[in-house]
Amino acid sequence: MTTTAGTLLGGRVQYAQPTAGYRTGLEPVLLAASVPAETGDLVLEAGTGAGAGLLCLAARVAGVAGLGLERDGELAALAAANFVANSFDRLAVQAGDLLSWQPSARFDHAFANPPWHASAGSTSPHAGRRTAKTAAPGLLATWVAVMATALRPRGTLSLILPAASLAEAMGALVASDIQEIIVFPLWPRAGTPAKLMILQGKKGSRGLSSVLPGLILHADAGFSAEADAVLRLGQALPLARRNRASQD
Predict the structure, then answer these.
(1) Nearest-CA neighbor of 75 among 8, 128, 13, 31?
(2) To the nearest 10°, the Cα dihedral for 53, 37, 58, 82?
(3) Which of helix, strand or coil describes residue 18?
(4) Whether the Cβ atoms of residue 196 and residue 75 lie closer than 8 Å to each other
(5) What is the pLDDT of residues 125-161, one digit of tens each?
(6) Whether the model pTM is above 0.85
(7) What is the pLDDT of residue 248?
């Protein structure tokens, strides 16, 4: 595997990723900013890839411990190297398929950018990108169920998905006893429909679900000030602050 050296969070995180195939976008950075983790918490990222999500989380929350699960052995090795390069010694990666994984610990939080493209649609010619993005029917519900099993009571589960998946995702979360769900839309620009959303719920909670104002990603010439604070400065998104406060 050939790799490209780069950075995340405005240069705060060193990040190598594959030159070809699936390339990291905004999704893992935004998703990591949604996780309401605190120092000492144990966090699971399913489908960690080269580790971008956990890297961004560890850069924001000092002392967080994390496990990345990745079915592609080469990507898992690259994630491990990225953790070492950034001196995040409380992050680890395990090569394995989430669908057959047996957790050996209970996690405070879990998050994922799961495959979501319909398998009947057009697919990438690159095998790694197809695996990362293409979802067979029912795969999302299976991912949610396995991640929920790994959570402690009232632990949080966070997903980033296309807005068109809202009904399917809500059903999958509730079926796995993930409730008190927050819907956080990601608006490309002010006044335009959201293409992506973050969903976050708590295991075993009976609180009310809610829709937050969300985040406008782009302004006139680039990122909005609010998006820039997350993507370049490493700040938390509002749903992370809200859920963390509700657990205190």
Answers:
(1) 128
(2) -40
(3) strand
(4) no
(5) 444 444 444 457 789 999 999 999 999 999 999 999 9
(6) yes
(7) 53
Burial of 204 (0-12, 13-18, 19+ CB in 10 A): middle
How many C-beta atoms lie closer than 10 Å to residue 111's C-beta?
Answer: 30
Q: What share of the chain is helix, strand, coil (3-state, %, to 5)?
A: 35, 30, 35
Mean pLDDT over residues 196-224, rounded?
96
Classify residue 84 by burial, with Cβ atoms within 10 Å: 0-12, 13-18, 19+: exposed
143 backbone φψ class: left, alpha, beta (φ>0; ψ -120 to 50) = alpha
Structural tokens at position 227:
């998006």
Whether residue 45 contacts residue 111, with contact meaning beta carbons closer than 8 Å, is answered with yes
Can you read off the two tokens belonging to residue 173? 């979360």
- CA of 95: how far to CAs of 3, 107, 187, 221, in Å? 19, 18, 34, 40
For the chain, domains (ranges, CATH) are: 3-247 (3.40.50.150)
Q: Is the pLDDT of residue 186 over 60?
A: yes
Q: What is the model's pLDDT at position 131?
A: 47
